[in-house]
Amino acid sequence: MRKLVVSEWLALDGVFDSTTMDQWFYPFDSKQRAAYIQEGVLTSDIFLFGRVTYEMLAPFWSQAKNNEMGIVEKMNSMAKYVVSSKPLNIPWENTTRLQGDLVEEVYKLKQQPGQDIRIAGSSMLVNSLLPSDLIDEYRLLVHPILMGSGKRFFREEKESSRLHLVHTETFSKGVVLLCYQPEK
């Protein structure tokens, strides 16, 4: 069975707002962080997106040509499933809109043979899946900055979930990778 991996980049206070990435993400770039992100893409063969994240990423990746680290080719060739009640207006190769019962559709994807299913961004999607117990791992790249305000990844009204720390790694410039799995 495939693993469903939530892979997120965020500030220490949980902000993951794409409009402020110039403050909390880009200043902390390093070869280590880039290699980690590359590895995550290359070890997955399905991306699962919410509509907002898909519409943010599709215009760039579908037109990208520089395949220096193998990510562009992989991003464009891998299967992409988008959870959206609205039709998708931005084409991106190998994209399917998921319709029907979200939990049932994700469960079916997990039953297929293959590599990890990766969710990036897509906080509404992740928060919708939390009660289902379908998420196998959370991989959080935490950046050493407190934003104070901005869009936060986890909703405040969700129920608590206990997690087990399975891996940590410190990258240069103070970025920390925290990998958690749900306690069963």
Summarize this structure briefly.
The chain is of the alpha/beta class. The protein is built from six helices and eight strands.
Explain what this protein looks like in three dimensions:
This protein is an alpha/beta fold and 184 residues long. The chain has a single domain (4-182), classed as Dihydrofolate Reductase, subunit A (3-Layer(aba) Sandwich), CATH 3.40.430.10. The chain has helices spanning 21-24, 31-42, 51-63, 71-77, 102-111, 123-129; strands at residues 4-11, 44-50, 79-83, 95-98, 116-120, 137-143, 163-170, 176-182. Strands 4-3-2-5-1-6-8-7 form an eight-stranded mixed β-sheet, sandwiched between helices. The chain is globular, with a radius of gyration of 16 Å. Pfam families: RibD_C (PF01872). Residues 3-177 form the Bacterial bifunctional deaminase-reductase C-terminal domain.
Give me the Rg, rounded: 16 Å
Main sheet specs:
8 strands, mixed
- Helix amount, in percent? 25-40%
Strand content: 25-35%
CATH top level is Alpha Beta
CATH architecture: 3-Layer(aba) Sandwich
Question: How many β-strand runs?
Answer: 8
GO molecular function: 5-amino-6-(5-phosphoribosylamino)uracil reductase activity
Protein name: Pyrimidine reductase
Organism: Ktedonospora formicarum
Domain Bacterial bifunctional deaminase-reductase C-terminal: 3-177
